[in-house]
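Sequence, please.
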């Protein structure tokens, strides 16, 4: 736990205790100490009794504003973990906070995101603002979350965040707001600060083979590539193992390290291929894939992914105008974890900590990442997003 500013501070507490109440008390106490927080961000395994966990953390904080979500792994200064809870506390005179929750998101993702984005108007006026969004990554085209928030805050307020996980079960994720634990929701924290906040976003994947034309798609489903069934093209060109051709779980394990790249005006975006439809031979992605666009398969290795880690941290720090960070929040795709392996993700967290220069770090492994600093797009897959606070 490190305080680097007399006015603004960030602290992180973690617990791997199996009992939800004990874990919540331990993590919250380490993050809070004797201070009152302006905001708590809670990232936790869905193995816990989440209602008890969140209630315990909220009570320990005296009812401080709280948002959070379930994860596919948790990140703290001590490294990456599973089956744990990480509590991040922001406090001090230099922050102002407003939080919001929108439920029933799957049928109205853009509207739900717009509703929570309105929380920006309730933040006391400060020179720097950011909107942190945590969403249910299984609730539809997550690019709609970015579009909805952008329609309210425009280009003046950067967006950052990630999609909740469920340890790769791909069944149900959870979002936290105050003492509420919900699913199929979007939660947000509008953060105002006297000092700059920086966002870095890099993926570290490389193109494999020739580009293809998306000849058929519907929202986040890719039906055909070059007029052939998308799943068949995917499996054959990437020489997928036999298990991935018939078994859903085996396909997901394979697809985690073989994303789809999309050509965008603002550059290159990556899409996590989360599911195969073995009946109609389509691919199901976490966010929309536009028909008529160019796409290609991608791959990465330890070197390319860790180079992206360094670049994302450096980009985030560059926006702090020379001020020291009080902390980093990391939203790291579960697919990058699949490439790096257990030892690799420990090296990655060590590198993030090195860039933070002794300031605390926290975060989670996601089903998709949000980072919009320019343009209207800003949903990413298989990418690392860093929010640096000063």
């Amino acid at each position: 736990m490190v305080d680097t500013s007399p006015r603004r501070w960030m602290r992180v507490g973690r617990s791997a205790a199996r009992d939800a109440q004990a874990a919540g008390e331990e993590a919250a106490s380490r993050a809070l100490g004797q201070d009152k927080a302006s905001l708590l961000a809670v990232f936790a395994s869905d193995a816990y009794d989440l209602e008890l966990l969140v209630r315990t953390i909220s009570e320990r904080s005296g009812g401080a504003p709280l948002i959070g979500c379930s994860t596919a792994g948790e990140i703290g200064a001590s490294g990456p973990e599973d089956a744990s809870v990480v509590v991040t506390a922001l406090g001090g005179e230099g922050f102002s906070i407003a939080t919001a929750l929108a439920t029933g998101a799957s049928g109205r993702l853009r509207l739900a995101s717009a509703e929570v984005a309105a929380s920006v108007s309730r933040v006391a006026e400060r020179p720097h603002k950011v909107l942190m969004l945590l969403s249910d990554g299984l609730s539809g085209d997550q690019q709609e979350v970015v579009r909805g928030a952008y329609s309210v805050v425009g280009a003046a307020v950067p967006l950052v965040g990630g999609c909740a996980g469920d340890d790769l079960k791909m069944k149900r994720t959870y979002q936290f707001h105050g003492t509420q634990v919900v699913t199929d929701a979007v939660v947000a924290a509008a953060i105002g600060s006297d000092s700059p906040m920086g966002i870095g976003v890099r993926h570290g994947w490389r193109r494999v083979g020739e580009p293809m034309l998306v000849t058929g798609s519907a929202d986040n489903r890719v039906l055909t590539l070059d007029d052939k069934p998308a799943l068949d093209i995917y499996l054959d060109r990437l020489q997928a193992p036999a298990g991935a051709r018939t078994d859903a779980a085996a396909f997901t394990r394979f697809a985690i390290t073989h994303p789809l790249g999309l050509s965008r005006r603002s550059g290159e975006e990556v899409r996590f291929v989360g599911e195969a439809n073995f009946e109609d031979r389509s691919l199901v992605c976490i966010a929309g894939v536009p028909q008529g666009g160019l796409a290609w398969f991608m791959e990465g290795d330890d070197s390319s992914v860790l180079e992206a880690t360094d670049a994302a941290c450096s980009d985030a720090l560059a926006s702090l105008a020379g001020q020291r960070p009080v902390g980093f929040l990391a939203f790291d795709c579960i697919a990058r974890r699949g490439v790096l392996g257990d030892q690799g993700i420990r090296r990655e967290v060590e590198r993030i900590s090195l860039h933070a220069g002794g300031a605390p770090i926290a975060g989670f492994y996601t089903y998709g990442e949000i980072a919009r600093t320019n343009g209207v797009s800003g949903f990413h897959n298989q990418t690392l997003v860093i929010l640096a606070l000063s």
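The two ends are 15 Å apart (CA to CA).
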